[in-house]
Amino acid sequence: MKKNFLLAAILTLQFFSPDSVWSQSTVTVTRTSGAVYTYTVQTDGNITFNGDYVIIKESATSDETSIQMSGIRSMKFSDGLSGINDISATSAPILYPNPAKEYCIVRTNESGPHRVSVYTMTGALLIDTTVEEGGRLDISGLPSAIYMVKINNTTTKLCKW
After folding, report:
1. Closest-CA residue to 58 (of 15, 25, 98, 32)
2. What distance lies between CA 5 and its chain's CA centroid?
3. DSSP secondary-structure letter at 20?
4. CB count, 10 Å around CB of 135?
5. Per-residue pLDDT tens digits for 12-29
6. Are β-strands 36-42 and 46-50 bridged in parallel, bridged antiparallel, or unpaired?
7. Are 97 and 130 in contact (CB under 8 A)?
8. Which helix (H) or strand (E) segment is 77 a member of?
9. Most Cβ neighbours (<10 Å): which of 60, 79, 86, 146?
10. What is the pLDDT of residues 97-146, one digit of tens each?
11. Could you tell me if 149 and 131 are in contact, meaning their C-beta atoms sit under 8 angstroms apart?
12. Cβ partners under 8 Å of residue 140, min gap 6
């Protein structure tokens, strides 16, 4: 329970801007099949992780949506104010190789540098850096695990072996 609360708090904090306040966030999930789903998470809703599942509850009264991590290609978060760009296979950031051991390459359709943050599944920030387009993200110091990696405003997963 504490782990889920911390992750939800971090996901909420990543949207914080001192110049704005909002009442909802949008999460767009692109599955490995290419299907794209958009969820509007109200202030009384949440996003949590349970084992190998992301659980999205849009509001206190809505049903939960469980999505297995292995079925997710990427997740993109928006503050509900600036809108959200469509995600396609050509615009979503890519980390490769994935799984990786020492490093992975950061690719997007945007020019760099890119803000890259690596989080544990419990929400602990491990790496917060910038990486040029096509540059290497050094993960050699991380233990083998599954990580959430935020590249600019898009979150994806990374498997470290």
Report:
1. 25
2. 16
3. B
4. 17
5. 444 433 333 334 578 888
6. unpaired
7. no
8. strand 72-78
9. 79
10. 888 999 999 988 788 799 999 998 888 899 999 999 889 999 999 999 99
11. no
12. 101, 102, 103
Can you say whether the dihedral through the CA atoms of 123, 125, 128, 131 is positive or negative?
Answer: negative
Give 148's strand partners: 119, 157
The answer to whether 127 touches 147, Cβ cutoff 8 Å, is no
Rounded to whole angstroms, how far apart are CA atoms 88 and 129? 25
Determine how many CB atoms are found less than 10 A away from the CB of residue 155. 21
Q: Residue 28, Cβ neighbours under 10 Å: how many?
A: 19
- What is this structure's pTM? 0.48
Q: Enumerate helices (H) and strands (E) in the chain, giving the number of each.
A: 1, 13
The answer to whether 24 and 41 are in contact (CB under 8 A) is: yes
